[in-house]
């Protein structure tokens, strides 16, 4: 988070590539739209009206609305959509769904969806001149959350877009005349409103305000507020559209007469035209959300009282039950089991508590009745989804204890980093927290008593805990059910999350998000009942404890959503996002086993149309495409090729229903996927994708975590101090760009681009459309004119200067040398976009070739900072740890590596560990970064090697899978070239290491 706002203390990173990809996916849909389309449309409509001898005054002219005008035809937008979809690895649409300009953007919870659509507003304004935007949300809770986000991001967007001033308001209906200012303003206008503000609603509390928008209003010259909004043809942005899918809601959206509609959600119920997808697997793989860790609380020793939940009955042969099963270690955990009629449950579970229990009868769902079973010995009847028995008070108390322990451990670990730790408890009913009390001060429910008791016990076990947190647990816990009053009290009722009282509570939470993140605010433990509402989360929730049965079809997914966002640390600059995976972990303390939780979570996502934990048809879409010589290109394989690979794997028997079969044995000698010749170069990448598709990558048991032991003696040794002093020398760089070389390279790139299609304008009574492809024949009731020669050309030099920072002379030389300026006259927008793309690409390459480094005083990363970081406790996962056999040679007993067990980093660590001439080696920490023209670079390894005649040789190495530069990304090569220049300047041997050529 880079751009700092003094007013809020929050910082927002404007360079997150996945967010830029989501923004560009929308912006590029309208490629070719002139920025001054509004003036163009008005002029041409006026021309048509004058020629036809009539004055066509619509509502827009009557109210003086400054609106959005989209002048691209449907065919151009469809072609743009197909380009965007192919680029993003999505299935390419053959046509616009229902012929409408409705576009879906799918982004996992916690990845900055609100930031993305707000920034998209400014990009659309900057590039195309769209100025009127309505953000439509399903509830007051989300409306207030969006309003808070705009307030927090206001200064950030002002710094990014100084030429795009904006106003943002919330429509509540009590001041409907404000729509006049919205309609007539010339700058960017953002209006946030609930769907109930425009659709008819039976809710008595909303009825009056909901009708105002449809009624003539004296202060609006007898027009309806809706007329003013409709007259602007706004861009409608729908946040959580799956909650606005009713026919009434869809009709209400249509009342705005939007120029187009953008729909943002993690889980779309109905799909329209999908332009971007960042699903849970993508978000996890990119490190954009916390890693989910499940801590199951099982009762040891005494046998658990019988618990039975009926999951499903497919036929009369068996029922699928969830039962309390005894594990090999003697503990009890819940597992799903198929049970036949009259089969002893004690035999199925290994749990003597079920002695005498069996299914006496079962029935499938029929004639409107749900499936059911009858149990003996008590004759209990269970319908599908129902349960009996369940978690005892002892288990719930132990779950609270596990949560408090984990919280205190994290508090001690993260407090020095400026990270406040929060924990959430979701309770079965409000009374479990409040008891006989009426507010936070006098709450005395069963869970509250257990929490207070457990907290005091666990806090007393460490001096560190006692210094960090006060003795009174009442200062640290708060409950949010409805608005809690400190005086006077109120009556609380159990809530499903849909009452006005819940809205009040969520409003309070969202408005106080910054206060909750402040370490000086004592509240760290939050109790709630309603976990099923979108609209609230907090980045510093590290523990979630569910003190109730996980019942609803979406409860696990919604519960996780409250804490998936990456944490933030308070620094001198403000709040900054923490991407360190040893920190960014969300622990779920569940009253079900890890296996059951993972299975049920997977099922919830599947029901929502999101596949996790399995191989998907689009699994290979984003693999980098190679040309016929095997050289990596800038393109991806795309959905069509990925789908073909998926079908091949199915037909060959390697996968079935998205799961690998017994035939998939990648470690077996001579194993092959038997891919067609053109796909064989991708075999290792495809195998890697398949191995990474398991549910255990997305959600892990707490037992998968491990800690590393720090070798303090190594950092204090003279050898290490000399190594660190040598490799951490600071440099500065300057870039020498050879003007003739740059101009020549840009001209060559521009000449190689396909011909730009000229534009034509179709003028009809319905409006104005701009099309690619030149003049076509006249249509009835319409006329077609060439754009060439009748259009005010934009300042191409100024536009290109703004994007590239090159001098006017350099740009003029490039444009004249390209010999293609006639195409600029015929289609200025497309031509400028093409030239800018070519110039930026060549500029990056030339800059890297001309970089020169110079030593300056200071260190990249001070040794004392490195030592402090080594002492800090961190959590890692065993699958990414190599156990060192010669721990005296490195700084930890485990080396952290990226990738799987066959990754180059894992192999290199083992190689260095066993080489006798390697005196010392270490994986360089993420904070060890070198500045380069293409961004910061973190090299992989530091090494001391002994050779005859030389006591020590200092080396820095970068591990890659190939030495072939053409098979690596351009950005990788650019950073390596810069690193070579940096380390050459400070006298350190630097090279790339690959499995076939370690270069040691």
From TrEMBL:
SUPFAM superfamilies: P-loop containing nucleoside triphosphate hydrolases. Signal peptide: none annotated. It comes from Pectobacterium araliae. It comes from the Bacteria. InterPro entries: Helicase/UvrB_N, P-loop_NTPase, RE_endonuc_C. The lineage of its organism: Bacteria, Pseudomonadati, Pseudomonadota, Gammaproteobacteria, Enterobacterales. Residues 889-992 form the Type III restriction enzyme C-terminal endonuclease domain. Residues 89-268 form the Helicase/UvrB N-terminal domain. This is DEAD/DEAH box helicase family protein. GO terms for molecular function: ATP binding; DNA binding; helicase activity; type III site-specific deoxyribonuclease activity. Keywords: ATP-binding, Helicase, Hydrolase, Nucleotide-binding.
């Amino acid at each position: 988070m880079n751009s700092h706002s003094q007013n809020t203390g929050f910082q927002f990173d404007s360079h997150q590539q996945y967010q830029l990809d989501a923004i560009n996916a929308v912006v590029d849909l309208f490629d070719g739209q002139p920025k001054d389309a509004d003036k163009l449309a008005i002029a041409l409509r006026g021309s048509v009206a004058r020629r036809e001898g009539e004055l066509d005054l619509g509502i827009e002219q009557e109210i003086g609305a400054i609106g959005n005008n989209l002048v691209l035809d449907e065919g151009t937008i469809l072609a743009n959509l197909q380009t965007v979809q192919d680029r993003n690895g999505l299935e390419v649409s053959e046509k616009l769904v229902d012929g409408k300009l409705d576009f879906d953007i799918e982004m996992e919870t916690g990845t900055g969806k609100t930031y993305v659509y707000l920034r998209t507003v400014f990009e659309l304004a900057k590039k195309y001149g769209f100025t009127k935007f309505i953000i439509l949300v399903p509830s007051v809770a989300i409306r207030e959350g969006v309003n808070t986000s705009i307030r927090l991001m206001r200064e950030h967007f002002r710094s990014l877009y100084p030429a795009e001033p904006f106003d943002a308001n919330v429509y509540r209906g009590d001041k409907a005349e404000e729509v006049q200012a919205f309609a007539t303003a010339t700058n960017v206008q953002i209006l946030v409103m609930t769907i109930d503000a425009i659709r008819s609603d039976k809710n008595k509390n909303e009825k009056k305000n909901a009708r105002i928008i449809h009624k003539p209003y004296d202060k609006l010259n007898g027009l309806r507020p809706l007329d003013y909004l409709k007259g602007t043809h706004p861009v409608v942005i729908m946040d959580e559209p799956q909650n606005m899918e009713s026919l009434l809601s869809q009709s209400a959206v249509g009342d705005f007469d939007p120029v187009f509609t953008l729909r943002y959600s993690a889980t779309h119920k109905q799909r329209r035209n999908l332009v971007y997808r960042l699903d849970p697997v993508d978000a996890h793989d990119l490190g954009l959300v916390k890693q989910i860790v499940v801590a199951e609380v099982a009762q040891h020793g005494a046998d658990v009282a019988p618990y039975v939940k009926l999951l499903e009955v497919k036929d009369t042969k068996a029922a699928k039950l969830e039962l309390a099963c005894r594990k090999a270690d003697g503990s009890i955990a819940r597992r799903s089991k198929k049970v036949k009629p009259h089969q002893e449950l004690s035999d199925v579970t290994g749990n003597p508590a079920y002695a005498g229990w069996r299914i006496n009868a079962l029935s499938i769902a029929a004639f409107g009745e749900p499936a059911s079973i009858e149990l003996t010995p008590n004759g209990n009847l269970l319908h599908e989804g129902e349960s009996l028995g369940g978690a005892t008070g002892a288990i719930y108390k132990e779950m609270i204890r596990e949560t408090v322990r984990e919280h205190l451990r994290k508090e001690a670990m993260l407090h020095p980093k400026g990270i406040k730790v929060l924990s959430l408890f979701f309770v079965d009913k409000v009374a479990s927290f409040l008891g006989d009390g009426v507010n936070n001060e006098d709450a005395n429910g069963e869970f509250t008593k257990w929490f207070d008791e457990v907290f005091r016990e666990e806090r007393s076990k460490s001096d560190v805990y006692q210094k960090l947190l006060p003795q009174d647990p009442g200062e640290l816990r708060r409950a949010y059910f409805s608005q809690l009053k400190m005086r006077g009290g109120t009556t609380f009722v159990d809530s499903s999350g849909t009452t006005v009282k819940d809205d009040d509570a969520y409003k309070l939470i969202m408005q106080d998000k910054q206060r909750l993140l402040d370490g000086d605010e004592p509240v760290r433990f939050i109790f709630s009942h309603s976990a099923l509402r979108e609209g609230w989360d907090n980045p510093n929730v590290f523990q979630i404890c569910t003190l109730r049965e996980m019942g609803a079809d979406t409860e696990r997914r919604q519960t996780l959503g409250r804490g998936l966002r990456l944490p933030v640390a308070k620094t001198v600059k403000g709040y900054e996002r923490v991407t360190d995976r040893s920190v960014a972990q969300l622990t779920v303390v569940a009253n079900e086993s890890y296996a059951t939780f993972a299975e049920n979570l997977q099922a919830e996502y599947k029901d929502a149309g999101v596949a996790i934990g399995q191989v998907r048809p689009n699994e290979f879409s984003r693999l980098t495409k190679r040309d016929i010589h095997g050289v990596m290109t800038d393109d991806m394989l795309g959905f069509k090729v990925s789908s073909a690979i998926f079908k091949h794997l199915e037909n060959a028997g390697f996968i079935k229903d998205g799961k690998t079969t017994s035939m998939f044995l990648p470690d077996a000698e001579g194993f092959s996927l038997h891919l067609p010749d053109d796909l064989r170069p991708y075999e290792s990448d495809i195998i890697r994708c398949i191995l990474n598709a398991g549910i255990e990558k997305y959600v892990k048991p707490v037992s998968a975590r491990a800690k590393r032991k720090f070798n303090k003696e190594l950092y204090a040794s003279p050898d290490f101090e000399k190594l660190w002093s040598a490799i951490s020398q600071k440099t500065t760089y300057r870039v020498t760009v050879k003007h003739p070389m740059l101009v020549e390279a840009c001209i060559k790139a521009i000449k190689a681009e396909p011909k730009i299609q000229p534009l034509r304008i179709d003028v009809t009574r319905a409006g104005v459309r701009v099309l690619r492809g030149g003049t076509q024949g006249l249509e009835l009731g319409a006329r077609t004119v060439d754009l060439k020669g009748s259009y005010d050309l934009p300042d191409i030099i100024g536009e290109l200067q703004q994007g590239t920072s090159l001098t006017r002379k350099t740009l003029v030389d490039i444009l004249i040398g390209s010999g293609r300026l006639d195409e600029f006259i015929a289609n200025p927008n497309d031509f400028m976009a093409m030239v800018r793309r070519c110039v930026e690409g060549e500029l990056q390459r030339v800059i890297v070739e001309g970089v020169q480094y110079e030593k300056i005083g200071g260190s990249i990363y001070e040794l004392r900072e490195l030592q402090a970081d080594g002492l800090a406790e961190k959590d890692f996962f065993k699958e990414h740890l190599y156990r060192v056999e010669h721990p005296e040679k490195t700084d930890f007993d485990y080396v952290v590596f990226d990738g799987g067990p066959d990754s180059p980093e894992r192999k290199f660590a083992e190689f260095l560990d066993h080489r006798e001439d390697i005196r010392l080696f270490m994986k360089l920490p993420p904070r060890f970064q070198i500045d380069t023209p293409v961004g910061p670079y973190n090299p992989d390894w530091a090494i001391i090697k002994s050779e005859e005649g030389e006591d020590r040789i200092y080396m820095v190495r970068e591990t890659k899978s190939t030495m072939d530069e053409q098979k690596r990304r351009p950005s990788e090569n650019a950073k390596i070239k810069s690193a070579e220049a940096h380390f050459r300047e400070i006298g350190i041997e630097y090279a790339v290491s690959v499995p076939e050529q370690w270069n040691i």
